[in-house]
Amino acid sequence: MPAWQMRAAGEGALKAKQASGGRTEASVSGGNGMTQQIEAVQRMQDYIEQNLAGEITPAGLARAALFSPWYAYRLFRRHTGLTPADYIRRLRLSRSALRLRDEGCRITDVAFELGFGSVDG
């Protein structure tokens, strides 16, 4: 299973788009363009993982994707079904929930450690 599909199963946020017959878009198109797009989305996801506690900007995601901010946003949304902001929010919320469940931390501590600007969301 490709890393981007495993990430989808593990995080529950990446919705790998499926074409008929259970094949992914990459295998349906067979082109290098699709592979480059998927790799760009993976780089953006890696960038988000590494910078989850800090500020993640469209420019930073674009640098990770090696595309313009506008095109990086479109790629991310096309391949995940989420905007980058929604993906980041869901990832932060799921990480926060796990830390609160497993470590018994204070809500405010977890919120600020995972990059939320306030406890209000």
Give a brief description.
The protein is an all-alpha fold and 121 residues long. The protein has helices spanning 3-11, 25-29, 32-50, 58-65, 69-80, 84-103, 107-113. Mean pLDDT is 77; it is low at 1-30.
Describe this structure in words.
There is one protein chain. Helix content is 66%, strand content 0%. It is built from seven helices and no strands. The chain has helices at 3-11, 25-29, 32-50, 58-65, 69-80, 84-103, 107-113. It is elongated and about 45 Å long. It starts with a helix and ends in an 8-residue tail after the last helix. Mean pLDDT is 77; it is low at 1-30.
Give the secondary structure arrangement, pairings included.
Elements: H1 3-11, H2 25-29, H3 32-50, H4 58-65, H5 69-80, H6 84-103, H7 107-113
Helix pairs in contact: 3-4, 3-5, 4-5
List keywords for this structure.
121 residues; mainly alpha; 66% helix; 0% strand; elongated; disordered N terminus
Molecular shape: elongated
* Strand-residue proportion: under 5%
Number of strands: 0
The H/E string reads HHHHHHH
- Name the average pLDDT: 77
Q: Between the first and last Cα atoms, what is the distance in angstroms?
A: 35 Å
Which sheet architecture does the biggest sheet show? none
